[in-house]
Model the fold of this input.
Amino acid sequence: MNGTDQTHHPDRVWSVAAHLDDILARIHPPAPVKRQLLDAQGCVLAEDLTVPLSLPPFDNSSMDGYAVRAADVAAATEAAPTALTVLGDVAAGSGALPTVAPGQAARIMTGAPVPPGADAVVPVEWTDGGSGRGPAATMRAHSAAPQDAAGEVRVHHPATAGAHIRRAGSDARAGEGALPAGTVLGPTQLGLLAALGLDAVTVHRRPRVVVLSTGSELVPPGEPLGPGQIHDSNSFQLTAAARAAGALTYRVGAVADDAEALRATLEDQYARADVLVTSGGVSVGAYDVVKETLTDLAAEHGQVEFRKLAMQPGKPQGFGLIGPDRIPLLALPGNPVSSYVSFELFVRPVIRTLMGHPEVHRRTVRARVTAPLGSSPAGKRQFLRGSYDPVAGTVAPVGGSGSHLIRAMARADALIVVPEDVTEVPADATVDVIPLGPC
Done:
């Protein structure tokens, strides 16, 4: 449908849940793509992966020491060590391996394959290291003492069969599950894939989110303020929030309250945006140009709707699909707390949906509030800032309910949710809490 969506009455007041459900119903994740391992970091795996080869692929030593036959050293003690003939060295990556016969040993390094005939490894500290003296603390470098790879070694402690040997397949066997679809690929997951011999995987790509603030009063941080001006904080706050949610982000400098300038800026961003996020200009003022601009853009191609939500802060919200590729655009209110709360409730789920993340929504927990929350407007869902203590199961309010209190927002690590039908919350009442964090 072209133009502003008229399927909903303009005076309708939307619930938080209905607004979010309507947004997510119109979000369609792009097709998965193949990525090289390091390019896949932070992405969500789009397919179940099985283990193509066992890990480790062969029996190998977990210690620097000597590969032996356990029966040969069963009676070894410090007082009566067992002497074995050293066949040579087995280093990590060795191909041709000596066969260990009775009365023999092979000096072996950590990670090296266990040679045929050997069924145990004795650490070098359990031997004399070939010196003919007491227990050795370490091996001498092969380049400095090549003679240590031959001769005789005295073993001072017994070893049972299998001692200090990592068995083939002890980590994972071929055919077992490696990682399920929906796994977020971090450093350890990428390490596993590399160990399995995979150089690329199919993932949901991270969405590209473009963030811009609107308002003629906004000045970049680092520049002096003139009369009636404030520093642009929203674009930094929202860009950081989008990045923390998993998106690739682009911050655009603040745009003045000029419809043509805003239109040109938005059109310039179409080529690199999977999601557009604006803040400011969605209320009912004479200079709230976001409505004017987006309505004009939607008339050409797309659909945009501005809504009143039964929530505080964040009553005015805008959502639509604009541009030839129908890019999702979320227009958030301009007050910094309203903007951030709106991001958490609406933009973050969009990002997580587009990236195929298994956890679209933040978890909600129950906690006891340590102080009264004061009055809450009837019929609106209120989101207050809080400091959450998961050990004690408590949450303390931080700052007041004002939508401009950005310092209080910076000190909070949770949102306290007051339902629409609750107007007073006394101390010690149990409330819903949304912990905020990097995940």
Summary: The chain is about 20% helix and 30% strand. Confidence is low (pLDDT under 50) at residues 1-7.
